[in-house]
Here is the input.
Amino acid sequence: MEFATTDDTMTVGLSGTKVTYGIDKSKLITNINNGSTPITNVQAKFKIADAGTGTKTITADKTGTE
Here is the structure.
């Protein structure tokens, strides 16, 4: 069995029946920042709160969903 990657950003190994995956964070960041294809599916969720209205969950995505 052979595991092949197109560059060395991701590593794949096999030991017996166990497959391990690894990502070189620095190379991944470089690939993302230098790539010509924009990332469009990023989403962040967080909560805000105050004494008067309680907690509200906010979702930040490319459409500005709340």
